[in-house]
Amino acid sequence: MRSEPVVHVHGLVKRYGTRTAVDGLDLTAAQGVTAVLGPNGAGKTTTIESCEGYRRPDAGTVRVLGLDPRRQARELRPRMGVMLQSGGVYSGARAEEMLRHVAGLHAHPLDVGALIERLGLGSCGRTAYRRLSGGQQQRLALAMAVVGRPELVFLDEPTAGLDPQARHATWDLVRELRADGVSVILTTHYMDEAEQLADDVAIIDAGRVIAHGSPDELCRGGAENTLRFTGRPGLDVASLLKALPTDSAADELVPGSYRVSGKVNPQLLATVTSWCAQHGVMPERISVERHTLEDVFLELTGRELRG
Amino acid sequence: MSAGTYTPMTGAAPLPRMIVSQAALETRMLLRNGEQLLLTVVIPTLLLVLFSSVDIVDTGAGRSVDFLAPGILALAVLSTAFTGQAIATGFERRYGVLKRLATSPLPRWGLMTAKTLSVLVTEVLQVVLLTVIALALGWSPHGNPAAVVLLLVLGTAACSGLGLLMAGTLKAEATLAAANLVFLLLLVGGGVLVPLDRFPDWAQTVLGLLPLSALADGLRDVLQHGAAVPWGDLGILAVWAVLGLGAAAAFFRWE
């Protein structure tokens, strides 16, 4: 399944006036689901729009399904589906009317009625776009992206502003697309979305990819993990530290609450528990914390992703 | 929907089908929009009926409807090809409709063709409606229908170019305001209701070069006075069409 890259971007540069939005970005996306993760203004949307053929790069090359999105737009467009970050629909168009229109631009579209039901838009099919709720507008835009039975779908922040139930419905659809062999490139600034959905994650900051890999690889690589336990206050942390491998750290955060950080593996866990046994300590509420993409981002950039 | 529902099966619809579908959608959007209908149907109809029945402006010798009907037809073209198209396209640009369609299988020239078709369909509806009303008011048109069609087509091209130029370069709100203002100013100074010979000589020369005056004057030459082909007015419209469409092609921004 993971053969030809669906998207290949090399040395992409895009400036708006004096502001450089994308600054020499390299990105290769294999088949499956790729999440482009980064804070607002990192260059996610510009990168996606360059792939869609909407933006003309100032430098670099972009290939989507092996095609140049600007010179070979005619061949590429029927093979991709696009969900913009917002809008894209006539304010006076009814939801079903717009979806039928987009379906009609393709040779073998999905059954519009079934797709409307699948996305829970059945009750508002005759409602004008401007009167739909934000969540309904998002779902309509998602439906427009998939109705042409594309090989590759670009979703720009597909769940921004959705309530948890609607987010999960969107996630389910992305999983179904993936299962049916549709590749998905999605941008997000939600860590959990990337972790839940993506085979691969590219973290973008200031117009460049600063890390790329599967969520597991990203969380394992580089970032240190943490083991916490509680016990009676005032344990001899220095003695615990001596028992641990040299690159570890241990401290008592608040009386009775201990943190061990370093390469957390079964060996380390055994070392900690046997040290506790030797010292007559019952470690309660013992927990291993895996690093999240949030931590990875913080470590790479020294900043929080959101805020 | 079951497994395999989304299995890719790609391909664009045939171009003519895409263009017709796009034109039909745009026409429905226009006919569904209250403000647009006010501009394209209600105002021209009211002006025609009111000014034909009540002697408000001295329209020269002959029945006033014979003077007014050609001007109102010119105004109908302006309202659809310029004002209506500018406002609609300005908001499509603002709401990302143009951007979304730019990534669809419909090529950009296909979208512009569809817009043109939509404008033409709307104009046909306007012309039929206004002609029926004018005839009911006692209008007796003369002249060569081919010359009338040529004038309407060139007038549409001139108005479309200028409307798209405005929609593609200004903010949607600015387009809304400016397009309505231009409509109002041309209504007064474009030879539709007030004959241009009521203005001072220097103003006549300038106003006569405006696309709406050229269209109204040409239509009147043919329909009221039975002239063959008003080449001067057609020339003015052609220059506006080339300038407007050329500038729109060069400066139009899709978002």
UniProtKB/TrEMBL annotation, chain A:
GO MF entries: ABC-type xenobiotic transporter activity; ATP binding; ATP hydrolysis activity
CDD domains cross-referenced by the UniProt entry: ABC_DR_subfamily_A
Example of a GO biological process term: response to antibiotic
Class of enzymatic activity (EC top level): translocase
Every ABC transporter domain range: 7-231
Membrane topology (UniProt): Peripheral membrane protein
Domain of life: Bacteria
EC assignment: 7.6.2.2
Keywords carried by this UniProt record: Antibiotic resistance, ATP-binding, Cell membrane, Membrane, Nucleotide-binding, Translocase, Transport
SMART domains reported in the protein's UniProt record: AAA (SM00382)
Any one GO cellular component localisation term in the record: plasma membrane
Subcellular location: Cell membrane
Gene3D superfamilies membership: P-loop containing nucleotide triphosphate hydrolases
Any Pfam family the entry gives: ABC_tran
TM stretches of this protein: none
Protein family (similarity comment): Belongs to the ABC transporter superfamily. Drug exporter-1 (DrugE1) (TC 3.A.1.105) family.
Protein name: ABC-type xenobiotic transporter
Protein source organism: Streptomyces sulfonofaciens
Highest classification ranks of the organism: Bacteria, Bacillati, Actinomycetota, Actinomycetes, Kitasatosporales
From TrEMBL, chain B:
Protein name: Transport permease protein
Gene Ontology CC annotations of this record: ATP-binding cassette (ABC) transporter complex
Record key words, sorted: Antibiotic resistance, Membrane, Transmembrane, Transmembrane helix
Source organism per UniProt: Streptomyces sulfonofaciens
Molecular function per GO: ABC-type transporter activity
Gene Ontology biological-process entries: response to antibiotic
ABC transmembrane type-2 domain mapped to chain residues: 31-255
Record-annotated membrane-spanning stretches: 37-56, 68-91, 117-140, 146-167, 174-196, 231-252
